[in-house]
Every structure is written in C-alpha cells, then in structure tokens.
C-alpha cells in the first residue's frame, strides 16, 4: 500500500498557510480526492514524493518538461547562468538568441516579447490586439483556458471547469461583457458573432488543440475557417500555443495544421521549466508595443537570464533533435493512449480517447468529445476513481478530467508497459465494483 503520511502532514501544514494548501488550484486534488503527494525530486519521467513513492509522471509540470526532469543540458545551462547572477533587469544576449529560435519555429512570429507566464502573454496579446484594431470585444471558446486574467475566466476550462466556477468572483461584469464565449469547433457560431458585432471584435483567441477541457482536437477545416473569418472581418487571430508550442511539432500547431496566426502566445516548454511566456506576431502589430508604440507592457523578470538559459537549452535541443524527438513522442503517446483505451474496452468501461501527438485525454464517456458540452458528459467520479487507482499504482495523471496528459522524451517503453498494466488492474476493479 502506498504510504502517504509525510505528504499528508505537509499538506496539512500547507493548508494553514496557503489557500487550499496550494499556489495553483489544480494542484489541490479536490476533483479526484485524496491528499496530493508532495514532490521531493524528479528525474527523467519519474517523480518521488516525501514518502519515497515513485511515480511515472504524465503531467510534466503541466507541459514544460518535454525532455524530462533534471535533463542534464538544462540543469547545466541554469547552473552556468546562475553563477553569473539570477537577474539583472537589463538586457542580455540570451533574449535575442531565444527569440531567434522562436522565430525559426514560428515564421509568423516576426517579433516577440518575453514575459514570465502564459497568463501575462495572453493578456498582453489581447491588449495589443485591442489597440491595433481599435475594438473592444474578443472571442474565446467555452472550455478553453488562457490564464487567469479577468476577461479570460468567462466559461473557462482547466481549474475553472474542474471546480465548476462559471466565471470568477471579483471579475467586474463590465469587463466580462467584452468577452464573447462561443462553443469550440462551431464556425457558424463565430460567423454569427461577427455578424452581431460588425466592426467591434478585435480578436479570436483559441487553443488550436485544446488542452484545458481535456484534449480536444480541432475539427478538419476549423482552424482554416477561423483564419478566413478573422481575415474577412479585419480581426486578429491569436493562437494560444502555451500548451501546444514545441510539443505537437517544433513549430507547434501552426506547423502541424499549416495555419498561421496573426499573434501567438507561448509558455511552458519555451522556458524549459522556468517561469517564461512569449507573445509575438506580425511586425506591424508588435510595433504597437512601448517603447515603439502606445501599448504599455513591462516586467522586472521578463527575459530573466535563468529562464532564457533553460529555454535555450530546451528549445535548442528540440531543434537539433526534432527528426528523432517528434516521431518518438508520437509513438510513445500512441502506445500509452491506445493501450489504456484497449484495457478500458476490455473491461467494458466507456472511455473516449482524444489525442494529438504527445497530449491526450481519456474521457469517461461514450460520446465523441468535440467541445466543452460533450466533454461535460464525462463521468468525473469514475475519472476520480481511476486517478486514485493509478496513483496508488505509481502513475501520476493530471488530477482532473478537464486537463490533458503529456509525456516526454524521457518516458521509456517500460514506463508505458507499466502504465497499461496499472490501467488494466484499475479497470478490472471497476468491473468488480459493478
Ligand atoms: N494550463 C495549466 C493547466 N491547465 C496551468 C496549471 C495551473 O493552473 O497551475
């Protein structure tokens, strides 16, 4: 039996000091039950908690750890940068170096700015889009999550969906008013919104493959349709590639689907596990930013040298080894996603599997999952039971039905086999429980 006393004690102490014992709600395990393991260290695809339990990690710090934990070149890069100081608040050569790598991966990102999180990236992108177009509304999609800035919390995914919070207390309705939340994968709804608000919509922001209502791929032609509608309406198309960037391909969803956005936001992998985000896009749009233009945006730790070093080591590795990395991620992800799905089918547990490359979700529903409405048909209690059984067997999945699972280059065939076997036992227990 998995020991949990040390993690439980740490969790109890944290709850007296931090709301819910956490610094981000999705870590609290409220949707799946049980005390969250407190992590002591990670190496490769493994995590160890305070009680000494080892887990195969399928959330990878929610995306960044595509090369595994404590990947030696990333560790060395951070150590070397730290020896030269953790922060200057002044420019270093590493910013332009990483920016050039980003531009190589994303040709549509002609100019960019580094920030410290995905939320900062998306909120800044919307501010620039509003200034560029002179319009106030923006469209987002139900179940998509673009960070926790006020206007994004309307019908959002991730923890907002997990905890059933429709918007958020503290967001003035005057701000929420300018967010038009539409169903994902429904081009007709987008056409209707533009028809209802002619000349008033600044931008459409979308996760091109959604990760925050679980993994939901775009329907064939959907991203192209968004591209065409926004072009026709002279609105900007913003791809939030915080999750998909450098994961689905070196050039993210834009490379995979062959659709270019006017603006792109990145985070997670681009910082190699350190706090880092990016917003960028066409030159004429990015020239709106101070000190060149009238849109103000700033940050003491933006372009932080440790984050740049970790990002350069990570993105540089992906660039150099992309011919091996992405096919390997595809093969491993297909093996684990399909293997677990087969175990569910064998046990008669209804599961719908959505996957694009190294991100996927097992939805506990019979229905195809194409939007937040269909994702919501999932049996979240059954997901919780599955999550607990997998954790007890040493497999740490994202602790919500409304999150995508990830893997990285450090996962081995043995890890996949162990995961599928654990799932088989978990589903067999479902059958025994009736
Ligand atoms: N985008 C991540 C989860 N969907 C963020 C993780 C967090 O909220 O802590």
Short summary of the structure?
The chain has 15 helices and 14 strands. It is of the alpha/beta class and 434 residues long. It is globular, with a radius of gyration of 21 Å.
Chart the SSEs and their pairings.
Blueprint (H helix, E strand, L loop, with lengths): L4 H11 L23 E5 L2 E4 L4 E4 L14 H12 L9 H13 L5 E5 L2 H16 L3 E5 L16 H5 L10 H4 L2 E4 L4 H10 L4 E6 L15 H11 L3 E5 L11 H6 L5 E4 L10 E5 L1 H4 L18 H16 L1 H26 L4 E5 L2 E5 L8 H4 L4 H13 L2 E2 L8 E2 L6 H21 L1
Helix pairs in contact: 2-11, 3-11, 7-8, 12-15, 14-15
The structure holds (4S)-4,5-diaminopentanoic acid.
Describe what you observe in this structure.
By secondary structure, the protein is an alpha/beta fold. The protein folds into 2 domains: 5-62 and 321-433, Aspartate Aminotransferase, domain 1 (Alpha-Beta Complex), CATH 3.90.1150; 72-320, 3-Layer(aba) Sandwich (Aspartate Aminotransferase, domain 2), CATH 3.40.640. The chain is built from 15 helices and 14 strands. α2 (72-83) runs antiparallel to α11, α7 runs parallel beside α8 (222-232) and α12 (322-347) packs parallel to α15 (413-433). The model has no long low-confidence stretch (mean pLDDT 96). Bound molecules: (4S)-4,5-diaminopentanoic acid. The site of (4S)-4,5-diaminopentanoic acid has 8 residues, from α5.
């Amino acid at each position: 039996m998995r020991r949990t006393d040390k993690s439980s004690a740490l969790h109890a102490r944290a709850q007296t000091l931090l709301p819910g014992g956490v610094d981000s709600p999705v870590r609290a395990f409220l949707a799946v039950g049980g005390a969250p393991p407190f992590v002591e260290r990670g190496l490769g695809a493994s995590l160890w908690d305070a009680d000494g339990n080892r887990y195969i990690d399928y959330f990878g710090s929610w995306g960044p750890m595509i090369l595994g934990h404590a990947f030696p070149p990333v560790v060395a890069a951070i150590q070397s940068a730290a020896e030269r100081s953790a922060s200057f608040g002044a420019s270093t050569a590493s910013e332009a170096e990483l920016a050039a790598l980003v531009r190589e991966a994303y040709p549509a990102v002609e100019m960019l700015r580094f920030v410290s999180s995905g939320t900062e990236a998306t909120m800044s992108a919307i501010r620039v889009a509003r200034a560029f177009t002179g319009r106030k509304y923006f469209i987002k999609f139900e179940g998509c999550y673009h960070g926790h800035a006020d206007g994004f919390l309307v019908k959002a995914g991730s923890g907002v969906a997990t905890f059933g919070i429709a918007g958020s207390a503290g967001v003035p309705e005057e701000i929420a008013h300018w967010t038009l939340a539409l169903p994902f994968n429904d081009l007709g709804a987008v056409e209707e919104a533009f028809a209802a608000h002619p000349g008033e919509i600044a931008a459409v922001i979308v996760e091109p493959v959604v990760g925050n209502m679980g993994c939901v791929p775009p329907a064939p032609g959907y991203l192209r349709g968004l591209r065409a509608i926004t072009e026709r309406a002279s609105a900007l198309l913003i791809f939030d590639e915080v999750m998909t960037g450098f994961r689905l391909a070196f050039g993210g969803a834009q490379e995979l689907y062959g659709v270019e956005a006017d603006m792109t936001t990145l985070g997670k992998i681009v910082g190699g596990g350190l706090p880092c985000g990016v917003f960028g896009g066409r030159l004429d749009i990015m020239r709106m930013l101070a000190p060149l233009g009238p849109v103000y945006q700033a940050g003491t730790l933006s372009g932080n040298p440790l984050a740049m070093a970790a990002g350069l080591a990570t993105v540089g590795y992906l660039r150099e080894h992309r011919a091996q990395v992405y096919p390997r991620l595809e093969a491993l992800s297909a093996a684990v996603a399909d293997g677990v799905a087969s175990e569910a089918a064998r046990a008669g547990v209804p599961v719908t599997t959505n996957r694009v490359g190294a991100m996927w979700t097992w939805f506990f529903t019979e229905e195809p999952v194409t939007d937040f409405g269909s994702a919501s048909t999932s049996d979240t209690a059954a997901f919780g039971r599955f999550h607990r059984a997998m954790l007890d067997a040493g497999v740490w999945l994202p602790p919500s039905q409304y999150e995508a699972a990830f893997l990285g280059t450090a996962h081995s065939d043995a890890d996949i086999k162990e995961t599928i076997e654990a799932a088989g036992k978990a589903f067999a227990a479902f059958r025994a429980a009736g």
